[in-house]
Amino acid sequence: MDTSGFAEADRAFYHYLRVRARAVVSGTADSLLDGSDWALAFFERKKDSARVCRLNYYLGQVYESNYAFLRANNCYVQGERFVGNDQRMLFKLKLGEASIYRFKMMRREEESCLRNALALARQLNDSSLLARSRQELSELYLSEGDYLRAGDQLRRALSTLPEGKEEERAACETDFARVFLAMDVLDSAYFYINEASRWEVSRELAINRGIVRGTILSRMGRFAEAERVLLSGVENFPLRNKRDVFYQMSLLKRQEGDFRAAADFANRSIRCRDSIDMSGKVDYITNLNAFQEHERQRKRIERMDRDLMRRKVAYYRLTIVFFLLLSTGAAVVYRIRRSKMRVEVALRRKGAEALLLQNKQEATQVLYMREKMEREALSKDSELRQIAYYKRLNELTIPVLMRSRNSQGAIHFSDAEWDIIIQNTNACFSGFTDRLREMFPQLSEDEIRFACLLKMEFSISLLTEIYHIAKGSVSRKKIRLKEKMQLDTGSLDDFIRDF
Q1: DSSP string for 330-372
Q2: What whole-number distance in Å separates Cα of residue 168 and Cα of residue 201?
Q3: Which end of the chain is more exposed for a tag (fewer CB within 10 A), N or C?
Q4: d(CA 211, CA 251)
Q5: Alpha carbons 197 and 170: distance in angstroms, whole number
Q6: Which strand (E) or helix (H) includes residue 303?
Q7: Pick from 466, 455, 452: which is nearest to 404 by CA?
Q8: Which pLDDT value is given to residue 412?
Q9: Beta bridge partners of 411
């Protein structure tokens, strides 16, 4: 259809509807690229994220149905970029990605996409979407041979399906029959395939349902009935279904002991499989080449657009520079004429400003020197007060120590006396023990008390009397405290003094 006379919006919407129709009706992906790419670019330019997302999804469906899996996956990924808050569309995109991963046999990635789709269905509280995501999960588990998990997902899917969803219910029951068939529970498989046969379904599902029924009957030993079901209308089946039917018939004839017929059906199945593989390879290679050529064309167009944009920018810049130079030249001539009359005034003003600035700098320097001297005086005063604190602390602490000697001259502190020492240390050194506990929570109470004595710079001889140990033991006690505090450099005394 000639769209040259359409307005841009109408032409973009036409291509959008065309791709959507192709996604619903099976067909080839030929001649879709040009129009769809133009429509995508138009909707992106108009910031119509909803249509960009949906168009990418429909393109992914078309490409996937024609085995162009790379292009399909790229469309699904692009669709997620523009999905916004549309959780239903995100659900469809996740299922689309999962189908691509299924083709690639990337099981973990497929399960991740299906789990995300299941979470979205829960958020939407949509029983149909819940059933569909669980059915897809069951298909994954069935392909992995995890029949229990596959059956569990199908059971949940059937329990959540609303009334009126006959196609979906028949599909779930058919899959249930496949699960029990794989587990060799033939009675249950036959029950569920009979349940699935109650519903009117599409031709594709009816064919698959018939193949499953024929396989079950064959495994049950009902060969004549199985052959009638399998071969019913087989000539009109697609190649994939023919392959499966002929394979099952080969197994059936082998069970009957008719090896010549089994070999014939096996050969027919192999011919169908070869035809499918050849067609799939040709389609895949064709689509891959088309995709690569499309990517090259897109990149070439992008480069041409960038080059054109750079040329436009360069032209605009040159134009702007020309007008700026012209305006600057006119302004310079005007200023020169006026500046001749104001040069002397400007020079005098600058001289006065320079003198004022120099005076301000000298005043600033004087103020700075005064503040420096005041800071030095405050620093000295602080040091003097620190020394006074030390003297006062020792004056308060030494009498306490003297009163704690026993009859042999040894010093023993009670908990109350230790509390006095800690309180004095905290008063003189801005909550020394609180800061120490916060930084080193692994220290014990005895180690905190020992740190207080070090902070007050008690002599080693006095520390030996307090702890009733030799001077060497005091040194080792310091070393153990330093290791526990994980101090790598410097001495413990210096650290405590500066803390």
Answers
A1: HHHHHHHHHHHHHHHHHHHHHHHHHHHHHHHHHHHHHHHHHHH
A2: 9
A3: N
A4: 13
A5: 7
A6: helix 259-403
A7: 466
A8: 74
A9: 405
Q: Give whole-number Cα distances, 8 to 15, 57, 139, in Å.
A: 11, 22, 44
Burial class from Cβ neighbours inside 10 Å (0-12, 13-18, 19+) for residue 174 reads buried
CA neighbor of 241 nearest in space, from 284, 267, 206, 278: 206
Tokens of 405: 């000697």
| Cα(113)–Cα(485) distance, integer angstroms | 51
pLDDT in tens, 234-251: 888 888 888 888 888 888
Please list the residues that pair with 405 across neighbouring strands: 411
Joined together, the tokens standing for residue 74 give 């790229």
pLDDT in tens, 381-425: 765 666 566 656 665 666 666 565 655 555 677 888 888 888 888
User: 447-455: long-range contacts at Cβ-Cβ below 8 A with a sequence spacing of 24 or more?
Assistant: 447/481, 447/484, 448/422, 449/418, 449/421, 449/422, 450/477, 450/481, 451/481, 451/496, 452/421, 452/422, 452/425, 453/421, 454/478, 454/492, 454/493, 454/496, 455/425, 455/429, 455/496, 455/497, 455/499
Q: How far is CA 293 from the centre of its chain?
A: 31
Amino acid sitting at position 91:
F
Sign, CA torsion 375/377/381/384: positive
What values do phi and psi take at 162, rounded to 5?
Answer: -75, 170
- Cα–Cα nearest to 279, from 287, 291, 269: 287
Phi-psi region for residue 30, left (φ > 0), alpha (ψ -120 to 50) or beta? beta
Interatomic CA distance for residues 346 and 352, integer angstroms: 10
Q: How far apart are the C-alpha atoms of 400 and 417, rounded to whole Å?
A: 7
Q: Confirm whether pTM is higher than 0.90.
A: no
Expressed in angstroms, the distance from the first to the final Cα of the chain is: 86
The H-or-E segment that residue 130 falls in is: helix 127-144
d(Cα 194, Cα 217) in Å, to the nearest integer? 12
In 32-119 the beta strands, taken as DSSP E runs, fall at none
Other residues' Cβ atoms within 10 Å of the Cβ of residue 58 = 23
Contact 36, 62 (CB under 8 A): no
What are the Cα distances from residue 429, in Å, to 40, 125, 300, 390, 496?
A: 72, 64, 74, 10, 11
What's at 43, amino acid-wise? F
Q: Which amino acid is at 438?
A: E
Length of the chain, please? Answer: 499
Cα→Cα distances 423→396, 411, 418, Å: 11, 19, 9
| pLDDT averaged over every residue in the chain | 83
Residue 141: closest CA among 128, 130, 131, 154: 154
**The two three-digit tokens of residue 393, written as one number:** 């602390």
